[in-house]
Amino acid sequence: MLEFVTGAEVIARAAIDAGCNFFAGYPITPATGILLALVRSMPKARGVVIQGEDEIASIGFCIGASSAGMKPMTATSGPGISLYSENIGFAQMAELPMVIVNVQRMGPATGGATTNAEGDIQFIRWVTSGGYPMIVLSPTTVEEAYELTIDAFNLAERFRTPVVLSTCKDLVMNRSTANISKYKKPPLAERTYAKDEKNFLPYNYDKPDDVPPFAPVGGDILTRINTSTHNKAGMLSKDPDIAGPALLHLNEKIMKHMDEIERVDTDLDDTAETVIVAYGSMGRASRDVVDEVRKGGSKVSLIVVKSLWPLPLKSLKRYVGNHKKIIVPELNLGQYVLEIERLFPDKRVAPINRVDGKLISPEEIKEKI
Amino acid sequence: MKYVNPDRKPYPFCPGCTHGTILDAVNDALGKIGADPKRTVLVSDIGCVGLADKYFDVHTFHGLHGRSFTYACGVKLANPELQVFVLVGDGGCGIGGHHLINAARRNIGIKVICFNNFNFGMTGGEHSVTTPNLGKTNTTPEGNIERPFDLCNLALASNATFVARKTAFDKDLTDTLVEAFKHDGFAFVDVLELCTAYYMPLNEFKKSDMEKMIEDSGMKQGILKDEKPTEYSKGLRMAWPQEKQSPKPPKGTEAKFKSDIKEGYYSVVLAGSAGMKIVSAATNFARAGLNCGLYATQQDDYPVTVQTGHSVSEIKLSPHEIHYAGIDEPDAMLIVSADGLRVVKKTLAGLTEKDIVIKTKDIPLETKARVYEIDTQDRTLGLSKANIMAAAIGLLINIAKVMPPEAYKAVIEAIPKDKIREENMRAYESAAKIAATIK
Q1: Nearest residue of A to residue B95, measured between CA atoms
Q2: What is the pLDDT of residues A147-185, one digit of tens each?
Q3: Which residues on B lie below 8 Å from A217 (Cβ)?
Q4: Cβ pair B49, B115 in contact under 8 A
Q5: Domain made up of A2-182: CATH architecture
Q6: Is A13 in Cβ contact with B326 (below 8 Å)?
Q7: Apex B156 CA angle, B155 and B161, nearest 5
Q8: CA A58 to CA A65: how far, in whole Å?
Q9: Inside any domain, residue B205
Q10: Rounded distance, CA A289 to CA A369, Å?
Q11: B315: in domain
Q12: In a domain? residue B244
């Protein structure tokens, strides 16, 4: 059976189904629908929802709440992500789980509040000073938005890190039919809690790619949260022998577990020379292109990237395989294509770009095949 | 009970700095109220005061400059039973002023203690929002031309429910902190002191000079306000139900009817003005499609302002999943205002004889498509801004035969608000009448 919904309603529903019990956000088109939906449903679910005085306060509230053991979410667009930058870095440094929804719109700056775009693809990867790994998931349909929102909470809890759900105005504000049978709810993950007060250290790990067991601020085991580089006790440290490994840990805890993070859908034709690599709006539209091309008797493969970052190297290399030409349609001036060009220097890479708010049409993509 | 771990002392502050005195007073005040260290959270801002967390054996949280108020609020919102206090300097109150103001306004039960020494210490003696006019600092070497905040006034103006001003030299500083800690709501304590590294030497500003400045400026000391409205984090929980209510699982629409669209797409552009219920009319049409088991997408376009300008919705229907929601050549265009026409002129020019245009009589337009008119001046039709587009849709359904009218009527009949349901029913009846005259 079908329901006719906006992405906002589905993401809000998914958040609560994921165990989200804290939402703080500032109204900003096109993300406001998520705040409005949660203002109604979060209190009923005995969770906290608050409209911050600005974006910085909103993400600050989420960080405080996460440190106290809640599962927070916030939602914004480009201008808000810009304001979140420093605090996202703090969440990385203090290893605090949270989900950040970026509903992309036309930029730069205020740009077009009600115009679709996907121009934050590299920005969201490098949004924090230091450039430590960001986990960024990207749905193409409303059904995927449900599943990936819950995935985002799970990965945030599993890795004790902020996770971004990257989406866009079209998915969140427009209505479309969703196949109810396609809503998948993954089992929920919770952060690992420290059991013993004795020998507890807030940032303790055996191997650098382990995730420190968590003790909530205000709980029975005293803990420390620190935005400065710190030792395992959470005390500020500038000592290279302490700060160095601590930062490498932030990198390895995610990069050594890519098998849990890579999410890539494929529709491969082993005999095709060309493959389309797409995500988000164009990931969705490309499915029509593939159908039309094949109906016309030609061949093409499709790779839909649902985990934009860290770059799903293994999946991309495996699925691009022996294709000779890679088409990368993007609603920006070419951002993810930079990664594709870097990974596949020996292949013909054909970007298709559009920044005027309209979708790249199936015709434009077919021409390039 | 000890909250400051004596083994970690001495404090790292400059000789003569009274930051340590204030921290000891915090320690004593927590002791006097019998605070449980495991339910006590110290949030330190950035600056010399930001070094304090290391000395306390309570939960500690050291975050970004100026944002300490937001983290403290987040913790308190998560767990209202905790004793959450913020140690911040006049520097942090500057960069984070907006957060201080709003935490106070909301009455979130965090306790803010401001270590106010009239300059930024840690970064090298720059001026702050409390640096006195004419004061010399490293960024105001010739004397500060700015005027300072009275932070207590700022808190009072923000409706803070507990405000106090002391100096680091007051013998009863601990007692005031006790009152702040006991207060169930937002508390702000401004503690004036001397920066022995910068402000004091640069201005030859001694304790007696500070006391004179306080007197001359008329800044009142002591507890300035102590009111007891509901603390925010507790208040918001009063609206919660006893049992958690999860969102209802999606119901979906049963396909009770069959549409005539067997393959491909049927695309409609609905163009009008803001305030003409274009978006909801389009949604109703799409829902009628779902009643026939069709997939649908809706894209709306309107300016940022509400109630003025154009409102154009695009509906695409199909018996199979729709991936590309764009409409390059619509099968029908429903145009009910000049605003709408203006935006869709280009698309209109691309129509052919097999397409349909339904418009209101007052709109002049040229097209190759078959044109049907609705005379909005005809009173008997019972049409207004609120239902002209609904009538256009009703007319389309009767002419184009893409779905049985019952599928659409089912959607209209299910509209919960009486007035809106009646408007839409009336529009449909009128459209059916017009369609009958065409045949």
Answers
A1: A56
A2: 999 999 999 999 999 999 999 999 999 999 999 999 999
A3: 41, 59, 61, 75, 82
A4: yes
A5: 3-Layer(aba) Sandwich (3.40)
A6: no
A7: 90
A8: 11
A9: yes
A10: 10
A11: yes
A12: no
Report chain A's terminal Cα–Cα distance, integer Å. 35
Q: Which of residues 13-32 of B touch A (CB under 8 A)?
A: none
Structure confidence at residue B307 (pLDDT): 81
Residue A308 neighbours by CB under 8 Å, 6+ apart: A121, A124, A125, A136, A137, A138, A166, A279, A336
Q: How far is CA B162 from the centre of its chain?
A: 26
Per the structure, how many domains does chain B have?
2
Residue A82 phi, psi (nearest 5): -60, -40
Which is more confidently placed, B162 or B1?
B162
Residues B64 and B186 in one domain: yes
Distance between CA atoms of B329 and B369, rounded to whole angstroms? 12
User: Whole-angstrom Cα distance, residue A96 to residue B78?
Assistant: 14
Confidence label for A112 from pLDDT (cuts 50, 70 and 90)? confident
Nearest to B362 by CA among B346, B330, B385: B385
Q: What is the CATH number of the domain that holds B344?
A: 3.40.920.10
Query: Going by DSSP bridges, is the β-strand pair B110-116/B83-89 parallel, antiparallel, or unpaired?
Result: parallel
Q: Which residue has the tokens 């620190």?
A: A226
B residues 348-387 lying closer than 8 A (beta carbon) to A:
none
Asked whether the beta carbons of residue B303 and residue A361 sit closer than 8 angstroms, the reply is no
User: Closest chain B residue to A179 measured between Cα atoms?
Assistant: B252
With a CB-CB cutoff of 8 Å, which residues 82-101 of chain A face chain B? Answer: 86-87, 90, 94
Q: For every residue of B380-431, which 3-state class applies, written as one string?
A: HHCCCCCCHHHHHHHHHHHHHCCCCHHHHHHHHHCCCCHHHHHHHHHHHHHH
**A338 touching B, CB under 8 A?**
no
Contact A2 B82 (CB under 8 A): no
CB contacts of A4 in chain B (<8 Å) are: 253, 283, 286-287, 290, 296, 298
**Is B359 in the same domain as B222?**
no
For A157-167, what is each residue's pLDDT tens digit? 999 999 999 99
**Whether A237 contacts chain B with CB within 8 A:** no
Q: Reduced to 3 states, what is the DSSP secondary structure of residue B361? A: coil
HEC assignment per residue over B4-40:
ECHHHCCCCCCCCCCHHHHHHHHHHHHHHCCCCHHHE
Range of the domain at B405: 266-438
> How much is the pTM?
0.96
Q: Are B163 and B188 in contact (CB under 8 A)?
A: yes
Residue B259 lies in a domain: no
**What's the gap between Cα B240 and its chain centre?**
21
Q: Determine the residue of chain A that is closest to B255 in CA distance.
A: A1
Whether residue B323 lies within 8 A of chain A, CB to CB, comes out as yes
Domain A262-368 = CATH 3.40.50.920: yes
Percent of chain B with pLDDT over 70: 100
B217 & B315 share domain: no
Give the C-alpha separation, A62 to B298, whole Å: 33
Residues 58-77 of chain B whose Cβ lies under 8 A from any Cβ of chain A: 58-64, 67, 69-77
Closest chain B residue to A2, measured at CA:
B252
User: Measured between beta carbons, which residues in chain B are less than 8 angstroms from residue A361?
Assistant: 324, 326, 328
Nearest CA in chain B to A216: B59
Q: Where are the CATH 3.40.50.920 domain residues in chain A?
A: 262-368
Q: What is the pLDDT of residue B1?
A: 56
DSSP state at residue B264: S
Based on the domain organization, do B164 and B53 belong to the same domain?
yes
C-alpha B279: how far from chain center = 24
Three-state SS at B363: coil
CB-CB under 8 Å, B75 with A68: yes
Q: Which of B54, B78, B324 sits opposite A288 (nearest CB)?
A: B324
Question: What is the rounded distance in angstroms from the CA atom of residue B429 to the CA atom of residue B415?
Answer: 16
Is there a single domain that holds both residue B229 and residue B289?
Answer: no
